[in-house]
Amino acid sequence: MRLLLELLWLALPVILAGLVHLVVLKLDLLPGLRERPIDGGIHFRGRRLFGDNKTWRGALIMIASTAVASVLLESLNSNFVHWSDPAPFAQHHPFAWGTLLGVGYILGELPNSFIKRQLDIAPGAMGEGMVGRVFWVIDQLDSLAGMLLMVLPVWQPDLGAVAALACLMLIGHPIGAWVMMRFGLKDRVG
C-alpha cells in the first residue's frame, strides 16, 4: 500500500498539470499557441503527422505546469509531509524532475497520435472493434511510457513499481476523466 501511495505522490505533478491544462483549454488561454500544431501541418502519406489536437500550447502548459507542480509539492513535502521519495532525484531536483516528466508525457503521446492519423482514426477517437480496444489501452499508457523513458537516466524503478504505475494509469485515468466530465471539464471518458 505504501508503494502505491509513493507512486501516486510521484504522479501528482502530472495530474495537477493535467488539471491546469484543462483550465487553459476551457478558458481558451494562449489562443495563439492553440493554433500552432506540433507537427506544423506536415503530412506523411497524405495524412497529418499528429493532427491539430497536439499543439505547442498543450506541450508548453504540460511541461511548465509539471515542473512548477513538482517544485511546489517538494516544498510541501520538505516543510510539512516529510515523505521518503522513491525517486531521490525528484526530491533533490524537483524542477528538473518535473520537466522530465512533462517532456516525457508529451513525447509519449506522439507515436500513438501518429499511428492513429495514419490509420484515419480521428483525434480523440479509439477506432472500432479490436483496434479500438488496443488503442484504448495504449491511450491510457502511452504518456506513462514516455515519462518512464525520460526519467530512466535518473530513476530506474523496479518491475513491481512499473506494473503498479501501469495499474494506476489503467484504473485512475478513466476514473479521473469521468470525474472531470461530471464537472464539465471534459467532454468524454475515453
What is this structure's SSE topology?
Layout: H1 2-27, H2 31-34, E1 43-44, E2 47-48, H3 56-81, H4 88-92, H5 94-118, H6 129-151, H7 159-182
Helix pairs in contact: 1-3, 1-7, 3-5, 5-6, 6-7
What would your notes on this structure say?
By secondary structure, this protein is mostly helical. The protein has helices at residues 2-27, 31-34, 56-81, 88-92, 94-118, 129-151, 159-182, and strands at residues 43-44, 47-48. The protein has a two-stranded antiparallel sheet. Helix 5 runs antiparallel to helix 6 (129-151) and helix 6 crosses helix 7. The longest helix is centred in the N-terminal third of the chain and has 26 residues, at 2-27. The chain is globular. The mean pLDDT is 89.
